[in-house]
Amino acid sequence: MKTESSRQEYYIDKCRKLLEDKERELGRKLTYYDQTFGCQMNFKDSEKLNGILEAIGYVRSKSEEADFVYYNTCTVRENANIRVYGRLGTLKTYKKKNPDMLIAMCGCMMQEPEEQEKVKNTFTFVDIVFGTHNIFKLAQLLYEALITRKRVFDVWEGTDEIVEDLPSHRKISFKAAVNIMYGCNNFCTYCIVPYVRGRERSRKPEDIVGEVEQLAREGVKEIMLLGQNVNSYGKTLENRTTFAQLLSMVGKVDGIERIRFMTSHPKDLSDDLIKVMASSSKICRHIHLPLQSGSSRLLQKMNRHYTREQYMELVRKLRVAMPDIAITTDIIVGFPGETEEDFQETLEVVQETAYDSAFTFLYSKRSGTPAASMEDQVPDDVAHERFDRLLKVVGETARKQNKKHEGETALVLAEEVNERDSSLITGRLSNNNVVHFKADPCVIGRIVPVVLEEACGFYYLGRLASDG
Ligand code: 5AD
Ligand code: SF4
Q1: For 311-365, how does the pLDDT look when each residue is reduced to its tens digit (9 = 90+)?
Q2: Among candidate residues 399, 365, 393, the one with its CA nearest the CA of residue 379
Q3: In 169-208, where do the E strands start and end?
Q4: Residues paired with residue 460 on neighbouring β-strands, in sequence order
Q5: pLDDT digits (tens, 9 = 90+) for 147-196
Q6: Angle, CA 263 vertex, CA 260 and CA 264 arms, to 5°
Q7: Among 113, 112, 93, which residue's Cα sits nearest to residue 103?
Q8: Is there a contact between 66 and 29 (Cβ–Cβ < 8 Å)?
Q9: Looking at residue 162, what is its pLDDT?
Q10: Ligand nearest 77 Cα, by number?
Q11: What is the pairing mode between strands 447-455 and 459-464?
Q12: Which of 115, 167, 249, 394 is most exposed, with the fewest beta carbons within 10 Å of its own?
């Protein structure tokens, strides 16, 4: 919506003027600090928030003692909430030293009325609260807070609006994430996401392709297409477009060398998608395919709409079409009613699929979701014990998969100087595995051939191939 983005440009301008006055008064630039919790969606939202803050004139700081601090929160599991409140306390002391400091909270946690109330009543030093549906309004909310010096709360229950064309700030210049859809309609019974991110809304393919073309012009080589369930992309569009069709369109953009996407729901993964992936040299050889449980009985209770057998059939098709594909997953342990037999089935699927890696989670009760009121909640000690066993098996399959490519030469996108050893460059293979290798930092941003000399479990130590 052009009108909304111009409205926000207007507020960016207004805030910039206020900030310039403040800079003159203090004789320094004003800083911001961002703390993001949760998934790639939240990190993408933070890029947009940072873009707005930088357009206003804030300079990014590594210290939390900044003039504007925001927490972009996650609520998918309970420990995410605990971490946020744990950290928030320290901000209070910084604010005492710098009374002009502004503190904002946004993201999924703020979509929950109880959490909003908690911030309102307990964390009274928080100045601005907004949600997942109106991040584009940051400049307007900030302006209101600066002018009125009052606390600003603005959380929307839902929206049909998709506001684009506002500034965005990327940390890595040659990699970018692109939202293709927002929200989720699946209502898996354990999951709070559909309640805090709202109904599924797809962006128009021409807008997505336009953004990717612009990114390519800016020098981006790798893009990550983001959605809670990318395989159901396009269902809400007037001119229906499937995710497979969208991928083909994006694959035609010159300059983009690698395409990734996340997350795929097994129930909607089509043969067409597998075909498009297999026939494209740009689409990375990696799929993140959340299993959640290997037991068809539990999958039904989770409202996942696939069985163990259907999932394994997908894995088979993917491996036939792309023998070198890496498959990763999400698994929940301790879902209500999970028996030892159910859990054994999960272990079997992990072994049969031979995952390259897996995110494993202890089931966390989220109030308002159907699973929260299910009987037979699994005792903590039982869930923990299963979790440890699962981790072991996942570690074994990951190491086995990793070992497979030892000695091969593969193309690596060189991403950054290694944090621990500055003589090494860290990059990623098409299959998303990490590789550390000795090279001059000038290779960063390039795709170079690397010999995978040693498989170290979850990463490789490599050597630049002579023609790199
Ligand atoms: N408890 C544990 N894990 C959860 N996830 C989502 N909701 C819950 C919950 N209530 C996990 C799922 C999902 C990932 C993003 O988070 O595995 O795929
Ligand atoms: Fe949550 Fe299921 Fe939607 Fe993923 S697909 S966000 S797990 S409801």
Answers
A1: 999 999 999 999 999 999 999 999 999 999 999 999 999 999 999 999 999 999 9
A2: 365
A3: 175-179, 181-182, 201-202
A4: 435, 455
A5: 999 999 999 988 877 777 777 888 889 999 999 999 999 999 999 999 98
A6: 100
A7: 93
A8: no
A9: 78
A10: 1
A11: antiparallel
A12: 249
State residue 164's pLDDT score.
Answer: 77
CA distance 335 to 343: 10
**Residues in the chain where the model's pLDDT stays below 70:** 1-2, 467-468
Strands 434-438 and 424-429: antiparallel
Nearest to 190 by CA among 347, 361, 388, 385: 361
Q: Which residues line ligand 1 (CB under 6 A)?
A: 76-77, 190-191, 290, 292, 330, 332, 361, 363-364, 366
359 in contact with ligand 2, CB cutoff 6 A: no
Tokens of residue 235, six digits: 């269902």
Tell me, in angstroms, the distance from the centre of ligand 1 to residue 333's CA. 10
Q: CB within 8 A of 401, min separation 6: which ones?
A: 326, 354, 355, 356
Of 226, 332, 335, which is best to mutate to test ligand 1, by the most ligand atoms within 8 angstroms of its C-beta? Answer: 332
Q: Would you say 343 and 333 are in contact if contact means Cβ atoms under 8 Å apart?
A: yes
Q: Pick the residue whose CA is nearest to atom 16 on ligand 1.
A: 76
Range 379-385, long-range pairs (CB < 8 A, 24+ positions): 380/334, 382/334, 383/333, 383/334, 383/338
- Distance CA(414)–CA(438), nearest Å, equals 11
d(CA 34, CA 146): 19
The two tokens of residue 138 are 């940051």
E strand segments, 114-221: 128-130, 152-154, 175-179, 181-182, 201-202
Calpha distance 350→289 (Å, rounded): 12
The angle subtended at Cα 155 by Cα 361 and Cα 362, nearest 5°, is: 5
